[in-house]
Design goal:
Elements: H1 2-10, H2 25-32, E1 50-52, H3 55-82, E2 119-121, E3 125-130, E4 149-155, E5 161-168, E6 175-182, E7 185-196, E8 212-224, E9 232-240, E10 242-249, E11 252-259, H4 272-284, E12 293-296, E13 301-303, E14 310-313, E15 325-332, E16 339-344, E17 350-353, E18 357-368, E19 371-384, E20 387-397, E21 409-412, E22 415-424, E23 428-439, E24 442-449, E25 470-477, E26 480-486, E27 489-496, E28 504-512, E29 514-520, E30 525-532, H5 542-547, E31 557-564, E32 572-580, E33 582-583, E34 594-597, E35 602-618, E36 625-641, E37 648-655, E38 675-679, E39 682-687, E40 690-695
Parallel strand pairs: 14-16
Antiparallel strand pairs: 1-14, 2-3, 3-4, 4-5, 6-7, 7-8, 8-9, 9-12, 10-11, 11-15, 12-13, 15-16, 17-18, 18-19, 19-20, 21-22, 22-23, 23-24, 25-26, 26-27, 27-28, 29-30, 30-31, 31-32, 33-35, 34-35, 35-36, 36-37, 38-39, 39-40
Length: about 700
């Protein structure tokens, strides 16, 4: 129950907005004279196309939502008051755009669409986001806390590094979310964590001491890096809301953020009179109080959005409302004053973008008869610079899951291909590959797999005839889709998309473990990165026990596989490498992978791997044995030779971060933020906030840290 309370309270501070002006005097009088709260429909996530509206309709819908949300919280806490002794949870997340110029760049989903990361490189200069939680804890307690900053390093013609500058971008920033490099402008998106106590809810003993962290602000700073030794912040905007995701196309940065207004002093409503007072307070408040604001470096504030550029669900009425706003903000990085936004008074959770389109998507979760019902919405917008036009919306049964959900989407011509999932392991999954096309203002389902002609399900059937395997990864490449499902073993499915009227599973391969990320190299080769899992230790069905080969030992750990997909009817694993008892952050963040195609037609990969190692220490006096754990981080180097089916996967070696003995005060540094850059045969491995330099053919020889 406590988790549900936190979830619903968190919804009060989640989404992003648009605006109009205050009510007229006449309207204010009519609100004051109300004797009861008007009848309103229950608040829910809209699953319809969108429509542009006037300022008055937008204000009505948003304020209805703010009131409905406050009333919903009151109902929850009245329920909590009656059950304060039982708290239960009852709540159900190109490939490389690097031009072949001899060095690696950030891996992205679509060619021509840049994605933010903690490191950017232009062939000479490295721009690194320093994370304050990785800085050494050697400073005195009374000293100021280390600040989040940007560091610039230069690589000379011999491959050596030198630090040029360190710049604090925002004093408020708790962490840097992503960097974008565009010519001599570095765009920095930073999170600002706010904390607030709901003192108005102190009437309930359960919530009186609850402390809620709310990420309700973020910062966008543009740093002029034309002079690398003295970078200057040319523009800084602090915006209300939380970043959902972002992309850059040419000179324009697109930021999708969410915001939900909060009225300070809105009392906890325990009676109908209290609810009426809340309703009046909401509707007599100026609309600007409900809109996300942005503030420049001089302290000037204004609304992030204009109601003339906002959308409501097409079927909304004056009795409907939603308390959250999603904002799509654009800024031309060559004209930093050119900030503009559109907004939707509904909810989305993800972003998929091409050079000409932006898709915002989300899932509505409902429960009926103890069964989850999931319905997803997709809104398509066309983009051309800062011009954004609404195109259409579509509804699908199922969800997109949470990890790397954007990779379930692919635009081809006028069609959107997208993979959805329904159900669970116990009742069975239904996975679908859907093809949608814009017809009017709707994204219509024009093809689907499974279908009447090809009814085979995506995922193996057990003896009860249901699919127990969830999807671990999806990747589209031209007219093929690769889907990995997993329960005990890894079926890799190859789906032929050549004819959308005849969608079909062409081939499947079953091997131990699974791939969480798929990286196509060519029409013939596919790389998979994930985990090798012993099916005897992951048994959920009798089938798995009977089918497992106990004569072949399975080494568990991080795994990289090379697949031959030249014959779509018979995919095969060429080779694989397993790093025992380890994991790689590439499994949940493909920006952690380093990739470079060389002039010799080979493909080089850098794979951060983290492992916990144990050494047994024997007490010489007592003979007692103690296991001592140690953290092992490394950048594993892999090479794929060639681009045809006779290619091979070759282990080159690993680069390890080596600290001097004087650095024993280092804090625990996770590998989850590790990155690397390849430039020719030079390797630069970023672990924590430091870089180590090595060489492709002699990776064990390192210099650093820098």
């Amino acid at each position: 129950m406590l988790d549900k309370i936190l979830l619903l309270l968190g919804s009060l501070l989640l989404l992003v907005g648009c605006g109009s002006d205050s009510k007229t005097d006449e309207t204010a009088v009519s609100i004051e004279e109300l004797k009861e709260v008007p009848s309103l429909n229950a608040m829910s996530m809209a699953l319809t196309p969108l429509k542009a509206v006037n300022a008055s309709d937008f204000e009505q819908h948003l304020k209805n939502g703010v009131y409905l949300n406050s009333a919903q919280q009151s109902d929850i806490f009245q329920s909590v008051d009656a059950n304060t002794s039982t708290l239960e949870s009852n709540s159900a997340v190109s490939d490389s755009t690097g031009k072949q110029s001899g060095y690696s760049t950030t891996i992205t989903q679509e060619a021509g669409v840049d994605e933010g990361d903690r490191i950017k490189y232009d062939g000479e200069y490295m721009y690194i986001a320093n994370y304050q939680y990785y800085q050494r804890q050697t400073i005195a307690e009374e000293a100021p806390s280390p600040q989040t900053s940007i560091r610039i390093l230069q690589r000379d013609t011999q491959g050596e590094l030198s630090e040029l500058s360190t710049t604090v971008v925002s004093n408020e920033a708790s962490s840097i979310k992503s960097l974008y490099l565009n010519k001599d402008k570095l765009a920095v998106l930073s999170n600002i964590n706010n904390y607030s106590i709901y003192s108005t809810m102190a009437a309930t003993s359960i919530v009186s001491d609850m402390f809620f962290p709310m990420e309700q602000k973020f910062n966008l700073s543009l740093v002029d890096v034309s002079n690398k030794t003295t970078p200057s912040i040319s523009t800084s905007y602090t915006m209300e809301g939380a970043i959902i995701d972002s992309r850059r196309v040419d000179d324009v940065l697109y930021i999708v953020s969410s915001f939900s207004p909060y009225i300070e002093g809105l009392p906890y409503a325990q009676s109908e009179a209290d609810k009426l007072d809340n309703y009046k307070k909401v509707f007599l408040s100026n609309i600007s109080h409900f809109l996300p604001q942005f503030t420049d470096a001089q302290g000037n504030s204004k609304s992030l959005v204009d109601p003339a550029n906002c959308f409501l669900p097409a079927e909304t009425t004056e009795k409907d409302g939603f308390n959250g706003i999603v904002t799509l903000t654009t800024i031309d990085l060559t004209k930093p004053d050119s900030l503009s936004s559109i907004c939707i008074n509904t909810q989305v959770s993800g972003l998929y973008a091409t050079p000409t389109s932006v898709y915002l998507y989300g899932t509505d979760y409902q429960y009926e008869n103890d069964k989850s019902i999931e319905t997803s919405i997709i809104h398509k917008f066309s983009i051309a610079g800062q011009n954004i036009d609404y195109v259409a919306s579509g509804v699908l049964d199922g969800r997109f899951n949470w990890q790397l959900s954007n990779l379930r989407f692919s635009e081809k011509g006028d069609d959107l291909r997208v993979v959805t999932t329904q159900g669970d392991r116990w009742n069975g999954y239904d996975h679908h590959l859907n093809v949608l096309s814009a017809i009017g203002n709707e994204l219509k389902l024009v093809a689907q797999l499974p279908n009447a002609t090809y009814p085979e399900k995506i995922g193996k059937l057990n003896k009860e005839g249901i699919v127990q395997e969830d999807i671990k990864s999806v990747r589209f490449f031209d007219d093929k889709a690769y889907i990995v499902t997993f329960l005990n073993t890894d079926p890799l499915y190859v789906i032929d998309l050549t004819d959308k009227e005849q969608l079909k599973i062409s081939g499947a391969l079953e091997i131990p473990g699974y791939s969480s990320y798929l990286h196509p190299l060519s029409d013939s080769l596919l790389v998979g990165i994930g985990q090798n899992v012993d099916p005897n230790r992951m048994v959920f069905t009798e089938d798995a026990i009977n089918e497992s080969d106990e004569s072949t030992p399975i080494i568990e750990g991080a795994k990289i596989s090379l697949f031959d997909v030249s014959n779509i009817n018979a995919p095969r694993e060429i080779q694989s490498v397993v790093y025992e008892n380890g994991y790689t952050p590439v499994e949940f963040d493909y920006h952690a992978l380093t990739y470079l195609k060389t002039a010799e037609n080979t493909y080089r990969f850098g794979l951060p791997v983290e492992r916990w190692l144990t050494d047994t220490v024997v007490d010489l006096k007592t003979g007692d044995k103690t296991d001592v754990w140690s953290l092992d981080n490394s950048l594993q180097l892999i090479e794929v030779t060639g681009s045809t089916a006779d290619s091979s996967l070759v282990e080159i070696g690993s680069v390890k971060p080596v600290y001097s003995t004087s650095s024993s005060a280092e804090v625990y540094i996770s590998g989850r933020d590790d990155r690397a850059i390849f430039h020719g045969n030079d390797i630069y491995y970023l672990h924590g906030n430091n870089i180590w330099k090595s060489f492709w053919h002699t990776p064990d020889l390192t210099t650093g840290p820098f």
